[in-house]
Amino acid sequence: MGKSLPSASSLPPKDPGVSASQSSKPPRPGAGGDALAPSGPVPTLPPFRVPDPSELRRRRAIWKRLRRLVGLEGPSDELQVTVFGPLEVVPGQTARLMVNLHRPESAESVHTLARALQSDAELLGSGPVLCDVFRDSEVATHVAVAGAGVAKSLATFTWRGQPRRLLFDLHIPWEAGAGPAAGVVSVGYNKVRVAKVEISLNVLRRKG
Question: Would 12 be classed as within a structural domain?
Fold first, then answer.
């Protein structure tokens, strides 16, 4: 008789921070972290369900009406995502992206603080979170950039009503071609993608 296969319960759990497509491919040498394609479409596979944006808007409108009718006043906030980083990156070096989640009225102070903390921080993109986020609930952020490795592509935190800054280190491979590199920053809430910000970095030509 052949050997019996291990039961599902004996197998190690999957890492929730790595998508199926990423875990099935070995990292590219020198890329570090998650392996991303050197060119072509941006990998947009964060570990969140991607709904129709109109679905989120309908849910948000219904929830606001229910809160008024029933008198629910649980603390929740309307949020915005703002992404800062260098406009240009150099092959063989590491660049830092700064992702901020904040209420819309804090946008100006968030921008000022980003420039003070990171000298090369330029505004790369921003967008709304398409649902209110309850305080003391978990929010996740995922970053992917074409042709770059992300040291840790998924970060989670607890929203407590104050601006939150998340840092992502990108490694640009030495063999990266010159030109624009597109990226996507996704925000997940209750395992659903509730925000998407598209960014673009210019990869400079290699020297030597």
Answer: no
